[in-house]
């Protein structure tokens, strides 16, 4: 009779287990979702990020057969929401919105996440409609007039916060045109818009929170940062049309915790892709002059890699790098 040591028996059992087909993740994907899904958003309720996401979540919930709860976690340039995924179970029931600021934070602060290696990329959704607005009482009727004045006289401009896309893009515009500008950061788009409405700053570089105020004549939109003119404001030129070869829409999308089962990622992707095509979501984007910017999971990850390199280069050029 042949006898085996405990160590030998354990080795045999482990080898046998390794040779068997693993059905745990397949079963998990088949059963997914088994309870409500939570999506963290790093921006306040009711804005151009929150409102479309709530419509999208409602539509995707109908497809997946489970509620999708949107929870606002504001702070850290919109990235506090994504940080919630570090301690989340990677079973697809906890998601977050990933803004473009996520890819610059490791270079400017002690950011406790590697976005390229600590997330599972689900789907790219859309981007913002940015522009520069001035008060109705402002002497500047065109972007060219603003530039000409600011080349000799410093002007102040507000944004939703430091190191946001608004801030960095405006600094690049100033760099390219020779404008002298003073950045006044606020705690969000609402504060930035109120500041320019109250004439506390000369201008605001902001996403489409200015739409209703431009529509009712309280603010004047001088230029937009999209690749094409906005449907609601067809008379306002793009940056490219005024001689600045730049487009900025800050695309964003949905991510899951690291090592989420690819089958679950695909199920989430497919549901949100279908939800993106709903008329309700498209109409909500229209309210903010936003358009769909779909990226599949692989494209969204590639976008993150490219954006990380681009953000680093911009920060280095502007002298804003803090972490080398």
Can you tell me about this structure?
The chain is α/β, with parallel strands linked by helices. It has two domains: 186 residues, Bordetella uptake gene, domain 1 (D-Maltodextrin-Binding Protein, domain 2), CATH 3.40.190.150; 112 residues, 3-Layer(aba) Sandwich (D-Maltodextrin-Binding Protein, domain 2). Helices cover 39% and strands 18% of the residues. The protein has twelve helices and eleven strands. The strands form two sheets. A six-stranded mixed sheet has the order 2-1-3-10-4-11. Strand 6, helix 7 and strand 7 form a beta-alpha-beta unit. The radius of gyration is 23 Å and the shape is globular. The N terminus is likely disordered.
- In whole angstroms, the N-to-C terminal distance is 66 Å
Strand order of the largest sheet: 2-1-3-10-4-11
**What Rg do the Cα atoms give?**
23 Å
The main sheet comes to: 6 strands, mixed
CATH topology (level 3) name of the largest domain: D-Maltodextrin-Binding Protein, domain 2
Structural class: alpha/beta
Number of domains: 2
**What sequence of helices (H) and strands (E) makes up the elements?**
HHEHEHEHEEHEHEHEHEEHHEH
The CATH architecture of the largest domain is 3-Layer(aba) Sandwich
Number of E-state strands: 11
Query: What is the averaged pLDDT score?
Result: 89
């Amino acid at each position: 009779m042949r006898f085996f040591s405990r160590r030998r028996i354990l080795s045999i059992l482990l080898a046998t287990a390794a040779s068997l087909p693993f059905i745990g993740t397949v079963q998990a994907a088949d059963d997914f979702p088994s309870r409500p899904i939570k999506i963290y958003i790093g921006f306040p309720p009711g804005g151009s990020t929150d409102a479309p996401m709530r419509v999208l979540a409602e539509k995707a919930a109908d497809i997946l057969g489970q509620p999708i709860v949107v929870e606002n976690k504001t702070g850290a340039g919109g990235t506090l929401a994504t940080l919630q995924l570090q301690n989340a179970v990677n079973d697809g029931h906890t998601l977050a919105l990933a803004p473009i600021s996520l890819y610059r934070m490791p270079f400017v602060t002690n950011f406790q996440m590697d976005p390229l290696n600590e997330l599972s990329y689900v789907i790219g959704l859309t981007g913002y409609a940015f522009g520069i607005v001035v008060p109705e009482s402002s002497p500047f009727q065109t972007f060219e007039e603003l530039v000409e004045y600011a080349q000799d006289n410093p002007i102040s401009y507000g944004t939703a916060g430091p190191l946001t896309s608004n801030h960095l893009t405006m600094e690049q515009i100033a760099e390219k045109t020779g404008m002298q500008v003073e950045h006044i950061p606020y705690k969000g788009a609402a504060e930035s818009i109120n500041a320019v409405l109250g004439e506390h700053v000369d201008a605001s570089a902001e996403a489409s929170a200015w739409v209703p105020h431009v529509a009712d004549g309280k603010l004047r939109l001088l230029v937009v940062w999209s690749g094409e003119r906005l449907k609601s404001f067809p008379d306002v030129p793009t940056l490219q049309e005024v001689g600045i070869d730049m487009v900025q829409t800050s695309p964003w999308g949905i991510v899951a915790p690291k090592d989420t089962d690819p089958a679950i990622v695909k199920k989430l992707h497919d549901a949100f892709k279908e939800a993106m095509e709903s008329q309700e979501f498209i109409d909500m984007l229209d309210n903010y002059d936003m358009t769909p910017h779909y990226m599949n999971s692989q494209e969204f990850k590639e976008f993150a890699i490219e954006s990380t390199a681009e953000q680093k280069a911009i920060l280095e050029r502007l002298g804003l790098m803090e972490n080398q």
